[in-house]
Structures are given as C-alpha cells and as structure tokens.
Design a protein that fits this description.
This protein has about 120 residues and is α+β, with helices and mostly antiparallel strands. It has two helices and five strands; from the N terminus they run H-E-E-E-H-E-E.
C-alpha cells in the first residue's frame, strides 16, 4: 500500500481530498498543474508515495524516480514543449526553495526560461 501523509497538500491532491488540475495519474505518480505557475506550462510530477525530499530517497524509490522522468517526457510532448525545450527542477530543502515537503519535479516551459540561476557579481 502507498504511504500518504494526511497533512500533506500533495497527498491530499493525489487521493482526491483536494482538487487539482490533474494532467496524468497512474499507480506510481500523479502530475498536476501548479496553482502559482511561473511559466506558461508549470506542471508538478510527484510520486504517489509520500517521500519528503531527495534527502529521504532510498534504493527502493529508484523505479518511481525513473518513472517520473518518463512521465515528464510524455507530458512535454503532450503539452507541446518537446520541440523547443523545457526545464525539469527538483528542489531539496529550504535554501533550494522547497516549500512543500513531498518530493516533486517541476516541468516548466512554453517560453524561454533564461539562465538556470542569476549570476552574482
């Protein structure tokens, strides 16, 4: 059985307790549109099992993590991003900007996204 955290907003979307604009769902992952998009396309791809962050990843998570990339590719094609490009981001921890502590991959595209990080002088 997949472990869910009843307090986690992503777990609540995965289980249907909270609404979300679901783009993809199977037994391993769910993908839904971010409610505060930073690009024309901003989809979150999350494992259905509650994994708080990359720091909590174990060897038994390898299959679902690989599946997240396959789903990202499929969604990029479906949403018209594959030809011109897209970005995949996984934030881990406070300094990286992780806000929801349920591992998730951001699929971003639909415009030029610029450099990865702003350079500091």
């Amino acid at each position: 059985m997949t472990h869910h955290d009843p307090e986690c907003i992503f777990c609540q979307i995965i289980t249907g307790k909270l609404p979300g604009k679901i783009e993809y769902h199977d037994e391993q992952v769910t993908a839904f549109h971010d409610i505060n998009p930073i690009a024309p396309v901003h989809v979150l791809i999350v494992p259905n099992a509650h994994i708080p962050s990359v720091n909590a990843v174990e060897p038994e998570h390898e299959a679902v993590l690989g599946h997240m990339f396959t789903v990202a590719r499929e969604l990029a094609e479906k949403l018209g991003l594959a030809e011109r490009g897209y970005r995949l981001i996984v934030n881990t921890g406070e300094h990286a900007g992780q806000v929801i502590f349920h591992l998730h991959m951001h699929l971003l595209g639909g415009r030029s996204l610029g450099p990865m990080l702003a350079r500091r002088s």
